[in-house]
Amino acid sequence: MSLPAPDDPPDGPEIAIVGIGFDVGTHPSRIGARGGPGHIRQQSRLLRPHLADRGPLDLGGIVDWGDVRLTPGRLDSLLDDATPALAEVVASGAVPVVLGGDGTATFPVLRALAAAHGPLAVVHFDAHTDAYPDAPPGADAGAEPLTTATTFTRAVDEGLVDPARSIHLGVRGTTFQTEVCAHARRLGYAVRTTDELVALAPAELTDLLVTHTAGRPVHLSWDMDVFDPAAAPGVATPEWGGLSAREGLAFLRALEPLDIVGADVATVSPPHDLGGTTGLLAARVVLEIVHTLRAGRGARRA
């Protein structure tokens, strides 16, 4: 959206858009989420800065921080390079809104935010929990414990999140393992399937999340596969039966009362994105998050 780069040194931005162009490169058929940040930026040129049904949005105080310099496919680079880069954003006083990247790109964001704010309440919209057991069937004995499927398992292990105040929303579809939702619940997370989510009105979701996250700063993690592939085909692992674009945007607007200290938008895969529709919808999600952050902070100050 032609946002400015930060000053050098950064001069107190309120919100920073940050790209983490990373995927682990182990998906059996869809590699490409590493190109997500640039793709979302490209499609954002089609957006206007004002949301007609929500009033004008002043984009002052928002910067595009650029992309973290790292090597896609190397987890050591993700953890060693992205964590301090995000810590720098947080230290500037800005709320990071991260463009992924696959689900592992969320992990260094959680590390940086938890170091500043303590254990987080995670509100995770995704077709998958990403809180699977450590070793999926058939995995090598020395398999890397951090994968796109275990991001939120590792986050509990490291004390980055408070699972009792965290929730996975929109879960559905096929899995390689049984009882994945049960495992997430054993870790302490709440889990709502897509059917349970769409049964809620946005105001009911607001009440649920305000109560569930009470007392904790919130990280919002929005995986684009929470949308139905009819709305967002260009994702790493599409699952039929997801949210429509209208439903997803309405649920985003229900998050204004939450104390959101960081957010990420994950798993846009440009090689699989027909006509750029997923990238454009992801850019709109980012704009909605920015508006939600602004509106929520304004309400709390009032």
TrEMBL record:
The keyword Chaperone does not apply. Signal peptide: none annotated. Coiled coil: none annotated. It comes from the Bacteria. Its EC number is 3.5.3.11. SUPFAM superfamilies: Arginase/deacetylase. This is Agmatinase. It comes from Nocardioides simplex. The lineage of its organism: Bacteria, Bacillati, Actinomycetota, Actinomycetes, Propionibacteriales.
